[in-house]
Design brief:
The complex is a heterodimer of chains A (250) and B (72). Chain A has 250 residues and is of the alpha/beta class. Chain A has 8 helices and 8 strands; from the N terminus they run H-E-E-H-E-H-H-E-H-E-H-E-H-H-E-E. The radius of gyration of chain B is 13 Å and the shape is elongated. The two termini of chain B are 14 Å apart. The chains are: A alpha/beta (250), B alpha+beta (72). Chains A and B meet through helix 1 and helix 8 of A and helix 2 and strand 4 of B.
Amino acid sequence: MEDTTRFKRFLKEKNLPTPWCPGCGNGIILKSTCDAFDELNLDTDKTVVVSGIGCSGRSAGFFNLDSVHTAHGRAIPMAEGIKIANENLHVVVLSGDGDLLGIGGNHLLHASRRNTPITIICFSNEIYGMTGGQVSPTSKQGAKTITTPDGCKDTPINVQALIKAHNCFYARTTTFHLKHLKKCIVEALRHPGLAFVDVICQCIVNNGRRIGFKDGYDMLMHYKNTYKINENADLLKEGEIGITKVGVVK
Amino acid sequence: MPQRKGEVAINHRYCKRCNICPQFCPTNNLEIVKGKLVAYDRCIACFNCERYCPDMAIEVVKIYNVETPATG
């Protein structure tokens, strides 16, 4: 009989339930990450999870592994330090888009330049969720937030170009495509250099309800209708998800 | 009658009533009644609710050897 709850051995069940809002996608990513760890059968003594500040920063506390909850934006330097100290460890960074691309954007740039062998899983919910819904670097043009009531005027950050410029692993996926999400994380963990998985996840309380979604299911269905899987692309276009080819500098 | 049958176990301590699983269920087996998630006996073990639950509150157990009526 197939056991669908085997991933729970990577979780501290006494710390559950998670503190996130009802309908939040962070729990789905947490679960899929544990599922990917389980598929690769990672040694719990040789895996470290690092997270920054934000809603997603709380995820490090649920892992039954060594985990660090670091200062705002400094998840990547901490992960690099751990990797330098002990090369045999699998270092996984779980953090949000505000933490990785906004406050810690410079660190991401330099980590990809050095091609440090760490895996970064970015919870991209297009908002600063924990502080109440301010505009973030990944907010789409025209998105209504509490700091941009007339719609965001700026273009979102192009993470793909930033990562691909240094020839690192880049994958984009959503919380609706669960099998694809797990596959992306597994491939990222297998990649020998820096791997970045951009997971588009729903934030219903601070983002979705302001841009016209009813609940978490509505946002998941929006991802289903908007994003199409495109495997083996050199570069992903708008509205496409997939794993990009490594070794193509554009 | 479906060929697969399952049983849904809900952990009410974890469940936040986000209303994702009742809308994913193809047989309308799950419902929120008076602020509490309830499961009926129409489960076909498709695992949609378990996979999409963000709070790990649902566990589906597949029951094998369900007698199905002969067809044709």
